[in-house]
Amino acid sequence: xxxxxxxxxxxxxxxxxxxxxxxxxxxxxxxxxxxxxxxxxxxxxxxxxxxxxxxxxxxxxxxxxxxxxxxxxxxxxxxxxxxxxxxxxxxxxxxxxxxxxxxxxxxxxxxxxxxxxxxxxxxxxxxxxxxxxxxxxxxxxxxxxxxxxxxxxxxxxxxxxxxxxxxxxxxxxxxxxxxxxxxxxxxxxxxxxxxxxxxxxxxxxxxxxx
Length: 210
Ligand SMILES: [Fe+2]
Ligand SMILES: [Fe+2]
Hints:
Blueprint: H1 2-16, H2 18-42, H3 50-74, H4 89-106, H5 112-142, H6 146-172, H7 176-208
Helix pairs in contact: 1-5, 1-7, 2-3, 2-4, 3-6, 4-5, 4-7, 5-6, 5-7
The chain binds fe (ii) ion (FE2) (2 copies).
One fe (ii) ion is lined by residues 59, 128, 158, 161.
């Protein structure tokens, strides 16, 4: 995949600089936090099941685990999610929020409960696949260090979420092949925009330090 080829040298540069590395980890903590918040806000208590509640809790735990790692790597300034301790935080949030709105629009003809459930399922499906790809690449670049070990449990839980939503989508959406193709194309575009912004921001930093 093209963006993936672009990402590898970028992450290679990021992990060599502890401050940039801490910002990178904190940005993923931020995305995990948004994921946690989205699940909690989008699901109605009357229909929230144990699996979805468990998913929200696990995303919250991922946010916390990465937050602690960001603080360990970069110091106490990484307690917050302000722009100066994130990498393209605004663009990262845009990726997630736009994905949510665009997926929701695919199900505009459904009633509110069905629309929010399908949006949750497809957004989760897309984000989990992307998370596995990006965390997998990040782990490979880190090699066998202590940070890489801490990613193992997180990756295993993301695989569990992916399997769970895949089976729920297959069971509940008769048009899942069409929707999956459409949703995938939306996500690829948004992800490319995020990686483009990240790449531009890292190059601008490198130029400024020359
Ligand atoms: Fe997660
Ligand atoms: Fe997840």
